[in-house]
Amino acid sequence: MERTPKYKRILLKLGGEALSGEGGCGIDPCQAESVAKTVGEVRQQGVDVAIVIGGGNLWRGNIGIERGMERATADYMGMLATVMNAMALMDAMERIGLITRVQSAIEMRAVAEPFIRRRAIRHLEKGRVVILGGGTGNPFFTTDTAAALRAVEIGADLLIKATKVDGVYDSDPVKNHHAVRFERLTYMDVISRRLQVMDSTAISLCMDNNLPILVLNLWQPGALVEALYGGNVGTLVSG
Asked: Most buried of 20, 41, 45, 136, CB within 10 angstroms?
């Protein structure tokens, strides 16, 4: 019996490290191609995919801030880094036949469309993957918040935060081998326990709009596709 995906449209939040090689710095074309193939598997299920990607592999604003850089300047530099990552990912996707559009919250028409909500939705309806760079376009907001904002704007059914860990734990699973993985959490659980899922602004935005968040391991074979069908993977945060 053919299965039907539980979710029709998702927003995938990736850290910049998803594109980096060893050491978590720079852009590794092989890593970008691996991510592209994983997204291709999702598209094969007939699910609309939008992506928000961070820029931590190219620039970390806290390093500049610690050395006296103005926070707004550091944040704008981080936004530019996300556009570079978006372009690298677009190139990897186009090379495997995925039709892709990059939209940026900071206008740079030579390399990306400006973010226009209705245009982004139209691209998704036509089966294109939309990569949303430039964060929210404003300093003092993280790419987690950008992901939550864009997911709500495009009418996503699920926000997936893809990490290197297979869910949310009660303590660091790397340091504590007895750490317990949560299968389900409420938004208030995340906030009150100060669990490192997303920042509080992003969690609040998802809670206010009843948008579920799924935290999973991007590199676990088949996990992302299984999540589309409501499989028991990762940690689901909902109301």
From this structure: 136
